[in-house]
Each structure stands twice: as structure tokens, then as C-alpha cells.
Design brief:
The protein has 12 helices and 19 strands. It is of the alpha/beta class. Helix 6 runs parallel beside helix 7. The chain is elongated.
Length: 368
């Protein structure tokens, strides 16, 4: 293992392959797998992650916006890409780069039909998003007939899939609500299929859905956070491997006298002799001020060291009193033995936020 010599986000592709295989093993052999790589592949590296998954023969990718799909195409990714939240201003580029839009409203449907016609498209693949209770994006059940009216005798598009999104698939207390969502989605799918002359795929399950509602896997599932080593379930987390490890180093060590302060606004005041280490990472790198003030620890030579005082823009200080360390030693912020979920919980947030919030100025490397 290469030791960090600067702040680095290390990407473990073997962990990614393990997670993909673990999730695939929960599915029927015929079920397709859509890998969600939006937000720079949950804060890691979109191109590196996608190229590895493409080599593993993943069936589909999902991104949030058109520019993310363009980045994948520029990296040489050939696998189909669903754009979950496209904006109409980007439809020309979407078609030019062979990306597939989520159509989630009557306005978006009409706009895309117009642009597809301008481009002389025939049977362009689109995916219809239905709202079954998350109340974020999506057509309503009552829109089915209107959708069919809009596409009747139109050659520009072809429905590749319909999909929805579970609101609380990880929450056992909301199982009844999730089952109602699944039932409504099946009703919409049956109504649409009855009136269309060709088949389409259905997909609804996210990572927690794969774990908790496998009977609703239909023709395809979508997984994001699970691919990166987290599943919103401690038992399943133990079967996955974190892909990203955020590392930094000790820039300088200070001996602090009793009653001396550390950092901005003198937010930390020593109650005795202390040793502190300054690390070259701060809130501009994605470690927000909410992690300071003694709430969160990093690992210094395997020992927990509390982040003290206010996190600065480019630096933060940790208490290394009693820890055998020196300047230049590697520090693990999260990953490996300290999960991003554990780290995030100290600030009352979730792994998604800390992972996707790591600044693009942090160097990405692939674990050797």
C-alpha cells in the first residue's frame, strides 16, 4: 500500500468489483443492473469507476445531468446512459452524445418530442419516470392516457423503460408505504403495457430496495451508494467494502501549553499540556466546520484523534496527545477502518453527503 504524501482520495477498484458482485448475487440472472455514477461517482472519480464497471459488463449507467453523461462519453464509455434529471436546454447535446433522458412531466415530454423531431430521430430511447410517493419528480398515474395521446403516431421516441423511486426502502417502519409504492408502480406499468404495442423495462429498486424488496426487481435495478460500500444497513455494510479512502498527512506538530488556544476564534483552549497536529485539509476540501469542536475523530497511526477547534478552509487541527506520531505521518480521515457513515454521523448527516462533498481539488488515485 502506498502511503499518502499529500491529501488524497484513494479509490479501491477491487472493493468496487466486490460490491458489484455482492449486489448482483442478490438478483436473478436475467435482471439488468444500472450503476448510478452521478456526482462524480459519489465523490470518487466518474471515469475511473465507470470504466471499471463497464469492464465488468454492467448494463446501464445513470447520471443526474447531461454534462455528467458527456463526461463519460468523453472518457470513452459506450454503455447506455440514463440522464435522471435532464434540462430542456441540454436536449440537443443529449441526443448528439447518445444519452437517454428521463421524461418526468408533460412539459418535458412535449419539449423532447420537438427536439427529437428537429434532429430527425426515430425510436429514440426514453425512460418515463412515475411518481409513486416520493413527490420529487415524475408523472402521476392519471397521466398515462395523456402520455399515450402525445406519442400516438409519433415516430421520434420509443419508451425504453418506466421507473420510480422508493422513498424509504431502508426503513423497516415504512415497509407498508414502500409496498404501496410498489403496488402503484405495478398498476401503472400494467396499464401502460396494455396500451403499448411493444415491451419496455421496469425498474424501481435502489440499493436498499435490492436488499429489502427483491421481489420487485423487475427487469432492472439501480444501485448507487451500495457500489461504493454503504447500504444504509449496518449488517449489509459489513458485507460491502468502502471504495474511497480519504487520506492526508501531518504537516506540523505543536506542543500547546495549558490555557493556550488553537485556531480561529480561539475555539479550542487547552486544559493542560497538549500535542496537536495540523493537517492540510479543510472545509474547502469537503470537511465542513460541523466536524470540528471535538465531535469527530480521524485516525493517526490507527489511533483516534479528535478534530479540535474550528475547521479552517485549508487546514484542521487534531489532538494527538499520547499518540506516537511525527510530521509527515499518514492520517486517515475516513475509509478503511473508519467508515464514511461513522464519520458522517458525528455531524448528524449521512455517508452520501461526506462522500459527494469531497472537493475536486483533492487528488484522486487508484489503490495499487
Amino acid at each position: 500500500m502506498v502511503k499518502a504524501v499529500e491529501t488524497t482520495l484513494e479509490i479501491d477498484l477491487n472493493a468496487l468489483e466486490h460490491n458489484y458482485s455482492h449486489l448482483k448475487a442478490r438478483l436473478k440472472p436475467s435482471t439488468k443492473f444500472m450503476a448510478v455514477v452521478k456526482a462524480f461517482a459519489y465523490g470518487s472519480d466518474m471515469a475511473i469507476i465507470a470504466k471499471k464497471l463497464e469492464a465488468l459488463r454492467v448494463d446501464y449507467f445513470a447520471v443526474a445531468y447531461v454534462n455528467e453523461g458527456v463526461m463519460l462519453r468523453n472518457a470513452g464509455v459506450k454503455t447506455p446512459i440514463l440522464v435522471l434529471h435532464p434540462q430542456s436546454v441540454n436536449f440537443d447535446e443529449l441526443i448528439e452524445r447518445c444519452l437517454e433522458p428521463s421524461i418526468y412531466s408533460l412539459r418535458v415530454l412535449k419539449q423532447f418530442l420537438t427536439v427529437a423531431k428537429q434532429h430527425g430521430q426515430s425510436d429514440y430511447p426514453v425512460h418515463l419516470k412515475f411518481n409513486t410517493g416520493l413527490n420529487r419528480l415524475g408523472f402521476w398515474e392519471r397521466d398515462v392516457n395523456f402520455i399515450l395521446q402525445q406519442i400516438h403516431n409519433r415516430q421520434e421516441i420509443k419508451i425504453k423503460s418506466i421507473f420510480s423511486h422508493l422513498a424509504a426502502s431502508e426503513d423497516a417502519a415504512e415497509k407498508e408505504f414502500s409496498l404501496k409504492q410498489i403496488s402503484l408502480f405495478e398498476k401503472v406499468g400494467a396499464e401502460l403495457q396494455e396500451k403499448l404495442e411493444y415491451p419496455f423495462m421496469k425498474h424501481m429498486l435502489n440499493t436498499s430496495g435490492i436488499v429489502n424488496f427483491s421481489k420487485a426487481q423487475y427487469e432492472m435495478v439501480r444501485s448507487g451508494i451500495g457500489l461504493y460500500g454503504y447500504a444504509n444497513d449496518a449488517a449489509i455494510d459489513g458485507q460491502l467494502k468502502p471504495v474511497a479512502t480519504l487520506k492526508t498527512i501531518i504537516s506540523q506538530i505543536h506542543k500547546i501549553e495549558p490555557h493556550e488556544s488553537v485556531g480561529y476564534n480561539r475555539a479550542f483552549k487547552a486544559d493542560g499540556y497538549k500535542m496537536t497536529a495540523t493537517l492540510p485539509i479543510g472545509h474547502a476540501d469537503g470537511i465542513g466546520r460541523q466536524y470540528g469542536m471535538g465531535k469527530t475523530s480521524v485516525l493517526v497511526n490507527g489511533q483516534p484523534a479528535l478534530i479540535i477547534g474550528n475547521v479552517c478552509m485549508d487546514m484542521m487541527m487534531v489532538d494527538v496527545t499520547g499518540i506516537d506520531c511525527k510530521e509527515g505521518d499518514e492520517v486517515i480521515v475516513f475509509g478503511g477502518p473508519l467508515s464514511a457513515e461513522t464519520f458522517a454521523k458525528t455531524a448528524n448527516t449521512i455517508s452520501y453527503e461526506i462522500l459527494t462533498g469531497i472537493s475536486q481539488r483533492v487528488k484522486r488515485t487508484v489503490k495499487k
